[in-house]
Specification:
By secondary structure, this protein is of the alpha/beta class. 44% of the residues lie in helices and 12% in strands. It has 19 helices and 12 strands. The protein has helices at residues 4-10, 26-40, 67-70, 74-83, 102-115, 126-136, 152-159, 174-187, 189-192, 215-225, 251-254, 283-292, 294-297, 304-318, 323-342, 346-351, 382-391, 421-443, 452-466; strands at 57-58, 119-123, 143-147, 165-169, 198-203, 231-236, 261-267, 277-281, 372-375, 394-395, 397-399, 410-414. The strands form 3 sheets. The chain has a 7-stranded mixed sheet, sandwiched between helices. Strands 9-12-11 form a 3-stranded antiparallel sheet, covered by helices on one side. The two termini are 22 Å apart. Bound molecules: pyridoxal-5'-phosphate. GO terms for molecular function: pyridoxal phosphate binding; transferase activity. Residues 81-430 form the Aminotransferase class I/classII large domain. InterPro entries: Aminotransferase_I/II_large, AON_synthase_class-II, PyrdxlP-dep_Trfase, PyrdxlP-dep_Trfase_major, PyrdxlP-dep_Trfase_small.
Length: 470
């Protein structure tokens, strides 16, 4: 279990570095100065060993189906290796030179068939795939319209995109989407005349909010505003691959919109417990990526083990072995909502804004629930809640700016097939215990009083300082 001293290490108080660097090269000083802007706000990133300790409960990793946790991915992966004993480890070059092989081609055919599309193209990661799509697909006269909360990788790609205009719409807001579409149509004559396209970029389930894109409504609006068919959708299924749709085909499949979505991007680093991603699409899109996506052209092809792991993941999905895990996540999240609602603290904590769970609203009326659940509280309380839960043996992390907009930090709770009802009981009781503590502090008007977990972590920081640990 994580102790207060470890938490103090994971959440250090940041001291500014640049002011003490008088004698160093301007090169390093400038870098530290930029880092200091993050340090000043306590929002620096660190690469640490903060994987869940074996005795803590995992409400944090993106191993949604538990394929890593249970080791279920290992055997089919080893079977792939055993079935190809002469495999070459390295690809030997770009796909366009020596890096292609029948095994990778076959993997892509399998992926395309599974998702019910004409073709698929593998990438090293979802990030690269999104950048590639945004850079290569929109033509100079085209427009990109995107949900304001799409992933950083889409923004990265958009920055270099040739699209004529790039406009966001308010998150999951169908009315605002219609306004933006209409505005683009009216202001861009080539688009209005149907000579250029509009590419609409979304996530199926948003990675930090866990809410679902209203795909049917958005598609309906796009068809109304652009009856010529020049508005096409690109949906990032990073958080829904393996978790939604029949056998894990994704959200687009779950809601029966495969024929309406031109580009789907499936990643394999989360539910499928491997790495990499595939773009599933019709051949003009695939050929465009092969010819114009520089990250695809000028990069060494995926190695055999990477493709083998992906095929192992698909084998599990295709043989129905992951479907019970998907179903289990649904049961567990609903159990969580029921348990939280039944807790006597919940209502007051929610009313007072101490604990809010936006995607819990009307959950009983929804056809399905999602596995990413943000816990919202007052901004300065997010770390306190995280520390309280960590000290109670619950592994979870806060998500802060720049991963989410300023003022929108939250604790992201992720549910997995390997969680169980007892884990959820602990999560709810520890969360509500903390909420009660905060309610008491606020009610007593003790504004500067810290909750117990925060006091422990701060004491841990002090003891590290006196021991000379940074
Ligand atoms: C919505 C979304 N898209 C794309 C990515 C990038 O995928 P990958 O981890 O395969 O690079 C992520 C990863 O966090 C994501 O959350």
């Amino acid at each position: 279990m994580v102790g207060a001293t470890t938490l103090a290490e994971w959440f250090p108080e940041n001291k500014l570095k640049a002011p003490g660097m008088g004698g160093r090269s301007v090169f390093y000083r400038n870098l530290e100065e930029r880092l200091d802007t993050r340090r000043a706000e306590n929002i620096t990133f660190h690469v640490r060993h903060n994987e869940p300790s074996p005795d803590s409960i995992d409400f944090s990793t993106l191993d949604f189906l538990g394929l890593t946790h249970s080791g279920m991915i290992r055997q089919p992966f080893l079977d792939e290796l055993a079935a190809h004993p002469d495999f070459k480890l390295g690809a030997g070059g770009s796909r366009l030179l020596n890096g292609n092989n029948p095994y990778t081609d076959e993997a892509e055919r399998e992926i395309a068939a599974f998702h019910g599309t004409e073709t698929a193209l593998l990438f090293h990661s979802g990030f690269e795939a999104n950048v590639a799509i945004m850079l290569a697909v929109p033509r100079p006269g085209d427009a990109i319209i995107y949900d304001e909360l799409v992933h950083a990788s889409m923004h990265e790609g958009m920055q270099g995109s040739m699209a004529l205009c790039k406009r966001s719409f308010k998150h999951n807001d169908v009315d605002n989407f219609r306004e933006v579409l209409a505005d683009v149509r009216n202001s861009q004559s080539q688009i209005k005349q149907g000579n250029s396209s509009v590419i609409i970029a979304l996530e199926s389930t948003y990675s930090m909010d866990g809410d679902v894109a209203p795909l049917q409504e958005l598609v309906k609006v796009a068809e109304e505003v652009f009856p010529e068919g020049n508005a096409q959708f690109f949906v990032d299924e990073a958080h829904t691959t393996g978790v939604f749709g029949k056998q894990g085909r994704g959200l687009v499949h779950q809601v029966g919109m495969q024929d309406k979505i031109a580009i789907r991007m499936h990643t394999y680093g989360k539910a499928l417990a491997c790495t990499g991603a595939a773009v599933v699409c019709e051949s003009p899109v695939r050929d465009t990526l092969i010819n114009f996506a520089r990250g695809f052209i000028y990069s060494t092809a995926p190695s055999f083990p990477m493709v083998a792991a992906i095929r192992a993941g698909y084998k599990l999905m295709m043989t129905n072995q992951t479907q019970p895990l998907q179903d289990r996540i649904q049961q567990l999240v609903k159990y969580f909502f029921r348990t939280l609602e039944a807790n006597p603290i919940w209502e007051e904590a929610n009313d007072e804004g101490i604990l809010q769970v936006p995607n819990m609203q009307d959950w009983e009326d929804k056809a399905f629930v999602t596995h990413v659940i943000p816990f919202m509280t007052r901004q300065r309380y997010t770390a306190y809640l995280c520390w309280h839960l960590q000290l109670a043996g619950i592994n979870c992390f806060p998500i802060d700016y720049p991963a989410v907009p300023r003022g929108m930090n939250r604790l992201r709770i992720v549910f997995h097939a390997h969680n169980n009802e007892e884990d959820i009981d602990k999560l709810v009781s520890a969360t509500c215990e903390w909420a009660q503590e905060m309610l008491d502090i606020e009610e007593a008007g003790e504004k500067s009083k810290l909750p117990a977990a925060a006091r422990q972590v701060i004491a841990g920081r002090r003891s590290q300082k006196s021991d000379g640990v940074r």
